[in-house]
């Protein structure tokens, strides 16, 4: 096993047992206006060598006003005129048709007809990167896209450098569906070599609409976890969140309680399979998924173990306030700007708690956004050409996000209530540089809650140099995510598999 640098907060306690909320960026108030979409006249782009250079998937981010939004663009150079679609995962938008897509002398242009006005991208193709400028509703920004190299490998395993293919433990996988009431969820079930029965684990994703690989900026944490655990002899079920990929339903009106029932249905599927040991089924949750996992374990003794990655152990309000402070510092915001942001958050949370009406919330959000603009440094303030348009563009998406069923539940939910009833073995890992679920805020409350449960098998470690996604990082800020290697800190996966196998063999 490779070494894993950690700092131990609790190890096998004797006698005791965005998330980040994606910022409601200014942009897309979505809903493509097909009537207003203007197709470029048919041309010969598809025949141009330059057009063929764009073919395929590109992943990256859009940055404006110090905020970062993940985007993915897929170009189709097999048609005339050149076509493209954009995904904006944080806003639940996938496959939106782009307009006026072109490339001339390495200059790439495309547009999106969106709620607050036309969004325009102008960039330059340099090898496997497109970099350029973005504008919408009086706001300027920059974007960068990198070509996504296909990484699909056969289900026989992944070749490690210097390892002969015939030395790789083989496994198989199959596409499955399961039901929670009228919601049908689709996923991938991976089995180790041999008849079994094998220990098994359900993977539970973090906040927002996630696919079964929990993909972000081309990094696929759940795919890597599934491949590693399966090679080590552990069956894995990972699935698309509600409304994503092959799954039905929607995350918009769902809460952690609903996601917990999805997980219970996933466990029922595993129990029905002869290849799985029904007494050795556990849960692995990341971020909000590490809130959901204890909810299930607190209600069912059928959960054999829990692996909690970057798991919150305080209320959503505490998480969001600390998160905005740490990310602001990492992004070099002034103390005054951070203090103002925190004050705005507390005002908003107070309005939500007393069930303020839509008009009052909308007016408060508009005031807060305008005050934020006025407090910006001059160089950022100059990028907003029309303050009224900017405020109007941001109010609606923030109003929708903060009045959602999920957000209201997340704000007040205290994960410690479920943790105090969790007696299954727990491995909890935190990233030292995690600014979204900081270990300094969450590791001790988690340890205390599990101790109150009388849980005698608890391991809590802080992984040195790791961010919220357990990548090796510099600052831990989400603005780094797209630039980092698409891999875990060395040793993390080995640590997880060894811990699970020690409790299930």
How would you describe this structure to a colleague?
The longest helix has 19 residues, at 335-353. Helix content is 30%, strand content 27%. It is built from 13 helices and 18 strands. It has helices at 49-52, 221-231, 256-271, 289-299, 316-330, 335-353, 358-374, 378-381, 387-402, 405-412, 416-419, 439-452, 492-504, and strands at 6-11, 56-64, 67-76, 83-88, 93-97, 99-104, 107-114, 117-126, 129-136, 139-147, 171-180, 183-192, 198-204, 235-239, 276-286, 306-309, 426-431, 458-463. The chain has 505 residues and is α+β, with helices and mostly antiparallel strands. The radius of gyration is 23 Å and the shape is globular. The model is unreliable at 1-47 and 152-169 (pLDDT under 50). A nine-stranded mixed β-sheet has the order 1-18-17-16-15-13-14-12-11, with helices on both faces. Strand 13 (198-204), helix 2 and strand 14 form a beta-alpha-beta unit.
Topology at a glance:
Layout: E1 6-11, H1 49-52, E2 56-64, E3 67-76, E4 83-88, E5 93-97, E6 99-104, E7 107-114, E8 117-126, E9 129-136, E10 139-147, E11 171-180, E12 183-192, E13 198-204, H2 221-231, E14 235-239, H3 256-271, E15 276-286, H4 289-299, E16 306-309, H5 316-330, H6 335-353, H7 358-374, H8 378-381, H9 387-402, H10 405-412, H11 416-419, E17 426-431, H12 439-452, E18 458-463, H13 492-504
Helix pairs in contact: 3-4, 5-6, 6-7, 7-9
């Amino acid at each position: 096993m490779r070494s894993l640098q950690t700092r131990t907060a609790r190890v096998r306690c004797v006698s005791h047992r965005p998330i980040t909320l994606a910022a409601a960026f200014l942009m897309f108030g979505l809903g493509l206006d097909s009537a207003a979409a203007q197709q470029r006249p048919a041309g010969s782009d598809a025949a141009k060598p330059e057009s063929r250079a764009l073919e395929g998937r590109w992943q990256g981010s859009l940055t404006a006003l110090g905020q970062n939004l993940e985007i993915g663009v897929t170009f189709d150079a097999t048609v005339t005129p050149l076509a493209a679609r954009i995904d904006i995962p944080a806003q639940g938008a996938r496959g939106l048709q782009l307009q006026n897509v072109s490339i001339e002398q390495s200059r790439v242009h495309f547009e999106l007809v969106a709620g607050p006005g036309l969004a325009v991208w102008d960039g330059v193709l340099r090898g496997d990167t497109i970099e350029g400028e973005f504008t919408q509703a009086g706001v300027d920004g920059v974007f960068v896209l990198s070509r996504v190299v296909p990484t699909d490998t056969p289900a026989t395993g992944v070749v490690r450098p210097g390892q002969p293919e015939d030395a790789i433990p083989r496994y198989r996988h199959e596409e499955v569906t399961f039901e929670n009431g009228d919601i049908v969820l689709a996923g991938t079930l991976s089995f180790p070599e041999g008849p079994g029965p094998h220990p098994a684990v359900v993977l539970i994703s973090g906040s927002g609409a996630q696919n079964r690989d929990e993909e972000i900026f081309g990094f696929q944490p759940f795919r890597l976890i599934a491949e590693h655990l399966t090679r080590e002899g552990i069956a894995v079920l990972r699935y698309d969140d509600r409304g994503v990929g092959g799954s039905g339903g929607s995350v918009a009106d769902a809460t952690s309680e609903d996601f917990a029932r999805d997980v219970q249905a996933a466990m029922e599927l595993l129990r029905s399979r002869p290849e799985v040991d029904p007494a050795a089924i556990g849960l692995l949750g990341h971020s909000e998924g590490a809130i959901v996992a204890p909810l299930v374990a607190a209600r069912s003794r059928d959960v054999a173990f829990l692996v909690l990655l970057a798991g919150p152990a305080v209320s959503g309000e505490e998480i969001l306030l600390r998160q905005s402070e740490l990310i602001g510092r990492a992004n070099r915001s002034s103390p005054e700007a951070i203090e103002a942001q925190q004050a705005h958050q507390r005002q908003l949370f107070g309005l939500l708690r007393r069930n303020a009406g839509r008009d009052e919330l909308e007016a408060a959000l508009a005031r807060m956004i305008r005050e934020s603009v006025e407090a910006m440094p001059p160089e950022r303030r100059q990028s907003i050409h029309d303050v009224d348009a900017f405020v109007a563009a941001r109010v609606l998406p923030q109003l929708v996000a903060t009045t959602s069923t999920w957000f209201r539940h997340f704000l007040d939910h205290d994960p410690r209530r479920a943790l105090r009833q969790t007696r299954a073995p727990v491995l909890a890992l935190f990233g030292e540089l995690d600014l979204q679920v900081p270990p300094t805020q969450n590791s001790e409350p988690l340890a205390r809650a599990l101790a109150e449960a009388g849980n005698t098998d608890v391991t809590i470690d802080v992984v040195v140099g790791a961010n919220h996604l357990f990548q090796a990082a510099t600052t831990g800020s989400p603005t780094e995510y797209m630039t980092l290697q698409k891999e875990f800190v060395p040793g993390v996966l080995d640590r997880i598999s060894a811990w699970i196998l020690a409790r299930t063999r």
